[in-house]
Specification:
The chain has one domain. It is built from three helices and no strands. The two termini are about 20 Å apart. This is RND transporter.
Amino acid sequence: MKLLNDFRLIILLCLTLGLAPFFPEPHLWGKLKWIAGGAKGMQPVDWFDVVLHGFPWVLLIRIFILKINKKNVA
């Protein structure tokens, strides 16, 4: 559970796995544009790719929400 709360590790994952490959544009960004355009022609492997590259970003958002809630409770 410690790994899921390690801010530095999550940032590293976002900058590597979350954005790779970087050229011509970050892979996740291209997939999100594809989904926003209707996701026509997306195969199951493309959806898996979105989950794989998006998971570090979900963890980062989770950490921010936990930090904000901790400040509001205290």
